[in-house]
Design goal:
GO molecular function: mannosyltransferase activity
Keywords: Glycosyltransferase, Membrane, Transferase, Transmembrane, Transmembrane helix
Family: Belongs to the dpy-19 family.
Oligomer: single chain
Pfam families: Dpy19
Number of helices: 33
Mean pLDDT: 91
Membrane topology: Multi-pass membrane protein
């Protein structure tokens, strides 16, 4: 009965929607509770709350605090556009340099809403981030639901996301990090693209979906400085699928245009940030559209002809992308992202490097290969096993479909009609499934090569695995291969297996989640608290501080003092400045260090024993080793050195200054010391 069918679909949609919202809210509350229990955030002092925002997180939050405490919104914005406290002896535009429009928006919202008496600014900020986690989970749930056709799949995706929290998110201890703002919008964009790629979509629905894709793309681009690299991978997904006729060309073109237009709009808001204009994404998308215009008969001909044209197309697009990008960077004199390419070149074995910036990334665990224990954790929840099974099945299907498409000549405007006609064929891959398959493969490669990017992969892994377990595509194909296919048998499998998986996850992980929620800890960092309180009480508000990037972000947030350098590394001048400041941990004379610090207007320098006597990294990756090699000096300790390195004429500055020798005390006076930090005031020589 059609009426009963419509009623059942409406009821299923309502129940699935309610479950999605409830799961999103529960995830948000769960993560907020973990954060509170870990730090006792509601009971610690304001300075301790701010110190808990480590490294670059503290820098970003400081601009929110600056806007909230400004005399007016206009004055706050003026302070960001003409900022002279983030980098000493320089005035920079923070809105142009960094992705902090979210902090600006939140601070304005906090000022105009009547909530100041009930909610502290810091809680308004962190609750917004925890609220975005609800959006994230709902988007993952919806994507899985769209792919499989049942909200049971979305429920399983959400369960996997929560039980694999260690590998799917780090929001509870890095709240202001840019990716925690951006990834929820990225998940919304993927859900919208999955819906857009459905066949027989009504024109009105298609227009609204394109608008949703654009809005999600814009907010994703606005909130994270690495947006262009993530969207470049996404553009490669579209390019691969379009080459093999797996997506409608018209929709692919719209997605290319949306990516570029969203990024260019962000470029305008960021005062024409040159790093955006020189991005590979813009060059690649433009090159694809140009190449497609030139090679009009790309999708016509026999198998060998198609393969030849395809190889030529890939080569042409690659060369044109590099050429366009080179020209843009030459015109704009762009060098902001050169450290990323130096890092990639060294990481993938295209020659060793002594470049300080590249080695700084190479030696960080977060930028290393994905640890193998990640897979054992993901396997505990059955996620990895199911993911591999679904990935293998869908990859085999995609290979067969790609071969079929290349074998038979199809006009580019007929791809979607062809997909509709193939629904009765034994092997079919829906456009939405094809997109999510290549998406998970490419982002999986990124995660395997760079651990920090695993959160882009593991969350989508939950979606893809849950889809496969509940999919008629997967089980229908398998049952047909073994000649056991019936629609009833397929339905039994696609509903029974996810229920079993949900029961297993609940039984195994519910006690652990309850224990985790009942475990109470407290923030404890007395040395840093003592340092920040001393700076606020004993130094002028105009004082300039030098030190490590990570610590200085906290100094700015907690004290409002001026910095010489900071952790937002996407600027060539700042990278050169940081390398110079870090000579305080190198083997340099006191006169050299004093001259360097004076050139940046430094009043105080903070030395950290944890860096000077570092043991966290092995020899060759300690900060002092990187500086020694960059300066052409032999490294400390037992081990080999490159033959052209020479002994330094001077001892290590951070060690020797503590001996209070006259050559040091004439330039530096110790004014504060505890078990972790040593603060020296620079002499004012005429």
């Amino acid at each position: 009965d059609p009426t009963c069918g419509r009623l059942w679909n409406t009821l299923s949609l309502a129940v699935g929607g309610i479950v999605a919202v409830c799961l999103g809210l529960l995830t948000s509350v769960y993560i907020a509770t973990l954060h509170e229990n870990d730090l006792w955030f509601s009971n610690i002092k304001e300075v301790e709350r701010e110190i808990s925002f480590r490294t670059e997180c503290g820098l970003y939050y400081s601009y929110y605090k600056q806007m909230v405490e400004a005399a007016s919104i206009q004055q706050g914005l003026h302070g960001l556009v003409y900022d002279n406290k983030t980098e000493s002896v320089r005035t920079i535009n923070i809105l142009e340099r960094m992705n902090i429009y979210q902090e600006v928006f939140l601070s304005i919202l906090y000022r105009i809403l009547p909530i100041q008496q009930y909610l502290e600014p810091v809680y308004f900020y962190i609750y917004t981030l925890f609220g975005l986690q609800a959006v994230y989970v709902i988007a993952l749930y919806v994507t899985s639901w769209l792919l499989s056709g049942t909200w049971l799949s979305g429920l399983l995706a959400a369960f996997w996301y929560i039980t694999n929290r260690v590998d799917t998110t780090r929001v509870e201890f890095t709240i202001p990090l840019r990716e925690n703002w951006a990834l929820p919008f990225f998940a919304v964009q993927i859900a919208a693209i999955t819906y857009l790629l459905r066949t027989r979509l009504q024109p009105a629905h298609e227009r609204w979906t394109l608008l949703a894709v654009f809005i999600a793309t814009f907010f994703f681009s606005l909130t994270w400085q690495f947006n262009q690299f993530m969207m470049l991978i996404q553009a490669l997904v579209l390019f691969i699928l379009d080459c093999f006729d797996m997506l409608p060309t018209a929709k692919v073109t719209w997605l290319y245009i949306i990516q570029v237009s969203g990024l260019l709009l962000v470029c305008v808001l960021q005062f024409f940030n040159s790093m955006i204009l020189g991005s590979l994404l813009i060059s690649f998308n433009a090159s694809v559209l140009i190449a497609r215009t030139i090679q009009k008969n790309l999708k016509k001909g026999g198998l060998l002809s198609r393969l030849g044209k395809l190889l030529l197309h890939v080569l042409f697009v690659s060369c044109l992308t590099l050429l366009v990008n080179k020209v843009i960077k030459k015109i704009l004199h762009l060098e902001s992202d050169e450290h990323i390419f130096k890092f990639l070149k060294a990481k993938f074995g295209f020659g060793a490097t002594r470049d300080f910036d590249a080695n700084l990334y190479l030696c960080e665990e977060a930028f290393g290969l994905l640890p193998l224990n990640t897979f054992s954790r993901l396997s505990d929840t059955l996620l990895f096993y199911v993911y591999i099974f679904v990935l293998f099945s869908m990859t085999a299907t995609a290979a067969i479909v790609a071969f079929q498409n290349l074998r038979y000549s199809i006009g580019s405007t007929e791809v979607e009609k062809s997909m509709e006609k193939k629904e009765d064929c034994p092997i079919v891959l829906k456009p939405g499934t094809a997109y999510n398959l290549i998406h998970t493969v490419l982002f999986g490669c990124l995660a395997l090569s760079t651990m920090r990017m695993k959160y882009l992969w593991t969350s989508h892994m939950c979606v893809f695995a849950s889809f496969g377990l509940c999919s008629t595509e997967v089980w229908g194909l398998i049952l047909k291969c073994v000649r056991l296919y019936t629609s009833q048998r397929t339905s039994v499998i696609r509903y029974t297996l996810p229920v079993i998986a949900l029961l297993y996850i609940s039984y195994k992980f519910w006690p652990g989640i309850m224990d985790e929620l009942s475990e109470l800890r407290e923030f404890y960092d007395p040395d840093t608290v003592e340092l920040m309180n001393w700076i606020k009480s004993n130094t002028p508000s105009t004082a300039v501080f030098a030190g490590s990037m990570q610590l200085l972000a906290g100094v700015k947030l907690c004290t409002g003092r001026t910095l010489t350098n900071h952790p937002h590394y996407e600027d060539k001048n700042l990278r050169e400045r940081t390398k110079q400041i870090y000579q305080i941990y190198a083997k340099r004379s006191p006169e050299d260090v004093y001259r360097i610090l004076q050139s940046f207007g430094t009043d105080y320098v903070i030395l950290e024993d944890s860096i000077c006597y570092e043991r966290r990294h092995s020899r060759g990756c300690r900060l002092r080793d990187l500086l020694d090699v960059a300066n052409g000096h032999i490294m400390d300790g037992l081990g080999e050195n490159e033959p052209d390195l020479k002994p330094s004429l001077y001892p290590r500055f951070c060690e020797e200054i503590k001996r209070n020798l006259p050559s040091y005390t004439v330039h530096f006076t110790k004014v504060f010391q505890n078990k972790t930090f040593h603060v020296y005031r620079l002499a004012k020589h005429k």
